Amino acid sequence: MKLNLLVILVFLSLLACDDIIDIYTGPYAPETEPVDISAYDKVILEGDSICAGMPSNILNNSENYAVPGSKTGNVIQRQNFYTVTDNDVFILWVGSNDFQNNTPVHDFIQHYEVIGQSYKNVIIISVLPRFTFNEYRNSQIDKLNYNLYVICERNGWKFVNVHNHYSQHSELFLDGVHLLNDSSYDYLMNQFIQ
User: Fold this and answer.
1) Of 151, 128, 125, nearest to 45 (Cα)?
2) How far, in Å, CA of 139 to CA of 5, rounded?
3) What is the per-residue pLDDT across 109-137, written as a single tens digit (0 to 9) for each?
4) Backbone angles phi, psi at 89, to 5 degrees
5) Is a pLDDT exceeding 70 seen at residue 161?
6) CA distances from 32 to 43, 116, 124, 137 (A)
7) For strand 89-93 and strand 62-64, is the pairing parallel, antiparallel, or unpaired?
8) What DSSP character marks residue 28?
């Protein structure tokens, strides 16, 4: 009897534990078509080290304000550092450091909403897989990317899903997190029509 009670208590404690949850099994963010950015006066890039590492000549008329180590909350704090007009497009590529620091997906989504509401033309690039994470942690990136797709649809923003491609090409990564070199960004750049 005592053993049965102990088993039940352990089971109930596991159910209450936030660290023990199933692997996210979808829905997943769909593949996306290339986005035409040729009509915009200027392309403003913001994000973390993955965005900061983009080759400077990769997008026409672009200004890259990304800062290595940034989280979504840092982007919110930096929004007054640059000007984005209604004729510009704001491209956001951030999130890897939030995952590194265990930011809940719900908080990510709130941060993206706050950032995106400040601009007329918004493109969000999916968060890349981290080859340094286990399957569960990467499944949470899948969950985030699906939610980013949903908020883009809801707000009339564009979503660029590069996660699926990069998750199948670990050879394009330097350290399991950052893209290896300029040519590693080629697939991303093919997602934009200039």
Assistant:
1) 125
2) 33
3) 899 999 999 999 999 999 998 887 778 77
4) -125, 140
5) yes
6) 19, 19, 12, 23
7) unpaired
8) -
Structure tokens at 135: 């399957």
Comparing 3 with 102, the larger pLDDT belongs to 102
CA-CA distances (angstroms) from residue 31 to 126, 146, 152, 163? 11, 11, 14, 9
Q: Are 97 and 71 in contact (CB under 8 A)?
A: yes
The CATH number linked to 95 is 3.40.50.1110
Give me the number of domains the chain comprises. Answer: 1
Within a 10 A sphere around the Cβ of 16, how many other Cβ atoms?
8
Q: Which structural domain range is residue 43 located in?
A: 2-193
| H-helix or E-strand spanning residue 64 | strand 62-64
Does position 29 have pLDDT exceeding 50, yes or no?
yes
Token duo for residue 21: 């949850």
- Report how far residue 159's alpha carbon sits from residue 172's, in angstroms, rounded to the nearest whole number: 22
Take residue 105 and report the two structure tokens written for it: 């997906």
Dist CA 60 CA 182 (whole Å)? 16
CA dihedral 96, 99, 103, 108 (to 10 degrees): 40
> What would the two tokens of residue 193 be?
């029509």
Cα gap 121→32, rounded to integer Å: 17
